[in-house]
Amino acid sequence: MNDLAPLLTPEGRALLDEVRDTDPAHELAVATRLRRDHPAELVSAALGQARLRQRAVAKFGAEDAARMFFTPNGVEQSTRRGVAAYRAERLRAAGVRSVADLCCGIGGDAIALARAGIRVLAVDRDPQTAAAARANAEALGLAGLIEVSEADVTEIDTSGYDAVFVDPARRSSKRGRIFDPEAYSPPLSWAVRAALKAPRAAALKIAPGIPHEAVPAEAEAEWISDGGDVKEAVLWFGTAPGTVRATLLPGPRTLVSRGLPDPEVRPVGRYLYEPDGAVIRSHLVAEVAEPLDGGLIDPTIAYVTSDALCETRFATAYEITDVLPFNVKKLKALLREREVGVLTVKKRGSAVEPEELRRKALPKPHGTASVTVFLTRVAGAPTMLLGHPVR
User: What are 156-175's pLDDT values in tens digits?
Assistant: First the structure.
């Protein structure tokens, strides 16, 4: 799909409606039928767009995805709707009324900003991507708040906007995922300079694996997870420099650093707490452990152990029934003895792949009981912790 224009015509839109729910397994038959009455290129474009819309439901919801236009990279790299809405609300609450959205992609963040009542200049240098962003603004009735510009973001004057939002490209067609912030497009250093010029606030979306030492002193750093999956880190400017926070969606539930020292290492207690990934990425495990009267099972492993069962919004609690040295044969015998039919395997600090252990330890179910096995290290030794979630 190299051109959205044919899909925006009455014939193209009607064809999109017709192929909306096409099963990928039946595409060939559908394409053959439709090519009797429509140009082959238009049929291919419509079916390709239908596939992208189906994939986009997970990020944008069924209602929006069915009306929006996507590129393959746009689906992969766009922000999930709940995360974009959360970020837009933070900017709105900070008094922001206009944003220059640089590297806007297909417009997911621009849409969230506009729905928060913020005027947006959405900029992307790729013609197809900018066309998709423009089509999406119109399709969702937000064209009055979103102006789309096809341009190099480094040449855009942002002085007329309250805030800047930058989402640099972190993937390359040749190298795949990019880990060096200075290899982003544009580089993080350029994005920081653009952020510092913003009159009121700025937000830079970056990879959650960014080293903490790469965070500028002028920035607040926030790691965000959605449904338990870490989605991104954001550098905020004009908010609270030096602050580190973890935010869990839906919610939001936010944990802010208090500069606590690392928890002490202690023997495995009755309960194991698995902190949310955003907590781990933001180095806030100590802030979770303190109210639990908890410690670490190993100085290098982010599992918190405690004899107390306490409610926490930032970790999942498990009751531990067995602490065993790593041994697949012993585990297999134990699972058979306890008539286990459902085995969940988690790992942290272990080279063993969960699926490999599951295949070897439970080749076939022995009953209806369920067990969670943690493959990890305890005081440096390979260990298996058996237990179950606390409901």
Answer: 999 999 999 999 987 765 66
pTM (predicted TM-score): 0.91
pLDDT in tens, 13-46: 999 999 998 988 899 999 999 999 999 999 999 9
What is the SS3 string spanning the chain? Answer: CCCCHHHHCHHHHHHHHHHCCCCHHHHHHHHHHHCCCCCHHHHHHHHHHHHHHHHHHHHHCHHHHCCCCCCHHHHHHCCCHHHHHHHHHHHHHCCCCEEEEECCCCCHHHHHHHHCCCEEEEEECCHHHHHHHHHHHHHCCCCCCEEEEECCHHHCCCCCCCEEEECCECEECCCEECCCHHHCECCHHHHHHHHHCCCCEEEEEECCCCCHHHCCCCCEEEEEEECCEEEEEEEEECCCCCCEEEEEECCCEEEECCCCCCCCECCCCCEEEEECHHHHHCCCHHHHHHHHCCEEEECCEEEEEECCCCCCCCEEEEEEEEEEECCHHHHHHHHHHCCEEEEEEEECCCCCCHHHHHHHHCCCCCCCEEEEEEEEEECCEEEEEEEEECC
